[in-house]
TrEMBL record:
It comes from the Bacteria. SUPFAM superfamilies: P-loop containing nucleoside triphosphate hydrolases. GO terms for molecular function: protein-tyrosine sulfotransferase activity. This is Protein-tyrosine sulfotransferase. Keywords: Transferase. Gene3D superfamilies: P-loop containing nucleotide triphosphate hydrolases. It comes from Sorangium cellulosum (strain So ce56).
Length: 386
């Protein structure tokens, strides 16, 4: 087989199986897939805040924040923090975000001694156009999963939406974006990977994934749970399932965990998207008034913020996100950019929430409610930090 080193991106709704596929492909002998970076949502729409990137000082600031803004410092690699930024800058061919991204991912691939890299950030789904501008030969693996199972996983996790209405809105929008790209891109660049099929027939699905990537299928990838990323993730409540082989245990879990009332709420928001994706709705949509919808969204935002520093909460993750936002504001105060000239941060997508920009950038809760509840930042966790 003629191999390609084209970069690949794992996208989809959070809790749709993207982490599972990340761990599986990262166990391939040729593929380097590090922990989630969130580079496109966190940096690509904010490049204007660095000033002129052709200036060495501005470009160095971007690279520095990309590598030091990771929640898992340096992807867990044993690198020298006093020299890593200069090393990365020296490897770039020009002062662009795409080059910074490439050299950081290549540095990880070099460290794990693999020739090809890929990256999993679910919200890269909002930046497919920009990824293709930076990497025209990029390939996309999009996870498709029953939105009600996605909602259950999110509601039971330490992050994500806090009620089924908010979960349904998020799933519907992401599903719609993915459908659009599936129609737009060729079969050589976009592949939908259905979670339920991966769980039931992992060997067959992974053979198809390998063929799409132009790689040999390696049955050993199904031993992913013995790999470093999966073993570390499995120590957390949210990703305990990564400690064992692929299983059908989590297929159809909404029947156990969502009441008929909640299933009706989900159907009211996303029945059409469920049907287009091939899932049977099974219940009648439950009418939702505008007042009730507004309450659902406010409670979602409040609870997200109030539980950030709860046990296994994501306050460390969130603190790094907030730190990056602070750096942007500091550059604005220094006159490097103005809000009037700022481009819209996430393409042509219509906002779902009043804090939509923060949500797409990976924030777990809106700054408004973090300030309201006086959530204190913490940059060092006592447990596993993802």
């Amino acid at each position: 087989m003629a191999r390609s080193n084209a970069p690949f991106f794992i996208v989809g709704n959070e809790r749709s199986g993207t982490t599972l596929l990340m761990a599986i492909l990262g166990h391939h002998s040729r593929l380097a897939v590090p922990e989630v970076a969130w580079y496109y949502p966190r940096f690509r729409p904010y490049l204007h805040t660095y000033g002129d990137l052709t200036r060495a000082e501005s470009f160095r600031a971007l690279v520095s924040e990309m590598i030091f803004g990771l929640k898992t410092p340096f992807f867990g690699l044993d690198l020298n923090p006093s020299t890593i930024v200069q090393e990365l800058v020296a490897r770039t061919r020009r002062n662009t975000f795409g080059e910074a991204y490439r050299v950081i991912l290549e540095r990880y691939a070099d460290a794990v001694q693999k020739p090809r890299w890929g990256e999993k950030t679910p919200h890269n789904l909002f930046y497919v156009r920009e990824i293709l501008e930076d990497f025209p030969d990029a390939k996309f693996l999009n996870l498709v999963r029953d939105g009600r199972d996605v909602a259950v996983e999110q509601l039971r996790s330490a992050f994500g939406p806090r009620n089924v209405y908010a979960a349904a809105l998020i799933w519907r929008r992401s599903q719609s974006i993915a459908e659009r790209w599936a129609r737009t891109l060729s079969r050589s660049q976009w592949l939908d990977v259905r979670y339920e099929e991966l769980a039931r027939e992992p060997e067959r699905v992974l053979e198809r994934v390998a063929e799409f990537l132009g790689e040999d299928h390696e049955p050993e990838v199904l031993e992913f749970h013995r790999g470093e990323i999966a073993r570390r993730r499995a120590q957390t409540r949210d990703h305990r399932a990564l400690g064992g082989p692929v299983s059908t245990q989590y297929v159809g879990i909404y029947r156990q965990y969502l009441s008929l009332e909640e299933q009706g709420v989900f159907a009211a928001v996303a029945a059409d998207a469920l049907e287009r994706a091939g899932y049977e709705v099974g219940v009648s949509p439950r009418p939702i008034s505008g007042e009730e919808a507004a309450l659902f969204l406010e409670l979602d935002a409040r609870i997200r913020a109030a539980t950030l520093d709860a046990p296994e909460g994501h306050v460390v993750y969130e603190s790094y996100n907030d730190w990056l936002a602070d750096q942007r504001e500091e550059r604005r105060r220094r006159g490097l950019w103005t809000r009037d000239a700022a481009p819209r941060p996430f393409g042509a997508e219509e906002p779902l929430f009043d804090w939509d920009e923060e949500f797409i950038a990976g924030q777990r809760a809106p700054r408004k409610w973090k300030d309201y509840f006086a959530v204190k930042r913490r940059y060092h966790g006592t447990g596993i930090v993802l």
